[in-house]
C-alpha cells in the first residue's frame, strides 16, 4: 500500500512545484510590463479644448520640413540711364532693334513734348543674362549718355527664409486638415477651420513674395530716358527777323496801352488834383495880402 501511494505523492509534489514556478514567472512578467510603461501616460491628461490640441507637444520631436534643394544665388539688377539724342524717332527705332536682339520688352512708355525739350521715358524688362549687353548697346550706339546708375541686390537670404517658412506652414496645414477630419465637436471644427484659413492666407502671401522675387531676378529692370534739347525755346524764334520785329512792336504797343489803362484806372484820384491846386492858390493869395 505504501509503495502504491509513494509514487502518487511524488507526482503531486512535482506538479505543485511547477505550478508555483509558473505563477511566479507570470507575476514577474506582469511587474516588468508595468515598469516598462511610460509614466507620462498616467501623468498627462488629454487636452480639454482644441486650443490645447493645437499646441506642440514638448515630448514630441520638432517638425522638420522636407529636405529642400540648394537655392542658387538670387541677384536683382536695376538700372537708370538718361541719353541725349539728336532725333527722338530715330533713337526710338534704334532702341527697338536693341530690345529685339536682347529678348527685352517695354513695360511702360511715356512721351512728353515741351518748348524746351522732348522726353521719351521707357521702363524696359530684359532677361537677367542679357542685362549687361543691353546696357552696353545703349551706351555705344544710341546717343550721348548723360547719366547711368546700375545697382545689384542680393536677395538670396530673404528667398531662403521665405521658402523654409513656406515649407513649414504647408506641413502644419496638412496636420490641421487631418485634425479637422477627426474633430468631434462643432467648436473644435470652427477653431481648426479658422487656423487653416490663416495658414492658407500666409501661404498665399509667401508664394506671392517668391513669385515676385523670381520675376525680378529672371528679368532685370532698366529705366531709360531719351532726351532731346530744342535749339530754340520760343515759338517766335522759329520765324524770320521781320516777323520777330513786328511782334516786338506789337508787344511794345500793348505794353503802352496797358500803362495808359492803368493810369485811367486811377481817375478818382485825378479829380482831387484840381481841388488841391485851387486851395493852394487861394491860400497863397491870402498870404500875399
Automatic annotation (TrEMBL):
<dbReference type="InterPro" id="IPR025645">
    <property type="entry name" value="DUF4349"/>
</dbReference>
<keyword id="KW-1133">Transmembrane helix</keyword>
<keyword id="KW-0812">Transmembrane</keyword>
<keyword id="KW-0175">Coiled coil</keyword>
<dbReference type="Pfam" id="PF14257">
    <property type="entry name" value="DUF4349"/>
</dbReference>
<feature type="coiled-coil region">
    <location>
        <begin position="182"/>
        <end position="216"/>
    </location>
</feature>
<feature type="transmembrane region" description="Helical">
    <location>
        <begin position="256"/>
        <end position="280"/>
    </location>
</feature>
<feature type="domain" description="DUF4349">
    <location>
        <begin position="73"/>
        <end position="281"/>
    </location>
</feature>
<protein>
    <submittedName>
        <fullName>DUF4349 domain-containing protein</fullName>
    </submittedName>
</protein>
<keyword id="KW-0472">Membrane</keyword>
Amino acid at each position: 500500500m505504501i509503495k502504491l501511494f509513494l509514487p502518487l505523492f511524488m507526482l503531486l509534489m512535482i506538479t505543485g512545484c511547477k505550478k508555483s514556478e509558473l505563477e511566479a514567472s507570470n507575476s514577474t512578467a506582469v511587474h516588468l510590463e508595468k515598469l516598462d510603461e511610460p509614466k507620462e501616460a498616467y501623468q498627462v491628461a488629454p487636452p480639454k479644448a482644441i486650443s490645447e490640441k493645437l499646441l506642440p507637444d514638448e515630448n514630441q520631436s520638432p517638425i522638420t520640413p522636407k529636405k529642400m534643394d540648394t537655392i542658387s544665388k538670387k541677384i536683382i539688377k536695376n538700372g537708370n540711364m538718361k541719353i541725349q539724342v539728336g532725333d527722338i524717332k530715330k533713337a526710338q527705332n534704334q532702341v527697338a532693334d536693341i530690345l529685339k536682339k536682347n529678348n527685352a520688352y517695354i513695360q511702360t512708355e511715356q512721351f512728353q513734348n515741351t518748348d524746351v525739350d522732348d522726353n521719351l521715358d521707357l521702363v524696359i524688362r530684359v532677361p537677367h543674362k542679357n542685362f549687361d549687353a543691353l546696357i552696353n548697346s545703349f551706351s555705344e550706339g544710341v546717343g550721348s549718355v548723360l547719366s547711368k546708375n546700375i545697382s545689384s541686390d542680393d536677395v538670396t537670404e530673404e528667398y531662403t527664409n521665405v521658402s523654409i517658412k513656406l515649407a513649414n506652414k504647408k506641413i502644419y496645414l496638412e496636420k490641421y486638415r487631418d485634425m479637422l477630419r477627426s474633430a468631434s465637436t462643432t467648436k473644435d471644427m470652427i477653431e481648426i477651420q479658422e487656423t487653416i484659413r490663416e495658414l492658407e492666407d500666409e501661404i498665399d502671401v509667401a508664394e506671392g513674395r517668391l513669385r515676385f522675387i523670381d520675376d525680378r531676378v529672371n528679368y532685370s529692370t532698366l529705366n531709360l530716358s531719351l532726351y532731346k534739347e530744342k535749339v530754340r525755346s520760343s515759338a517766335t524764334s522759329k520765324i524770320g527777323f521781320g516777323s520777330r520785329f513786328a511782334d516786338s512792336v506789337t508787344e511794345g504797343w500793348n505794353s503802352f496801352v496797358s500803362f495808359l489803362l492803368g493810369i485811367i484806372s486811377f481817375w478818382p484820384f485825378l479829380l482831387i488834383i484840381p481841388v488841391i491846386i485851387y486851395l493852394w492858390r487861394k491860400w497863397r493869395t491870402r498870404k500875399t495880402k
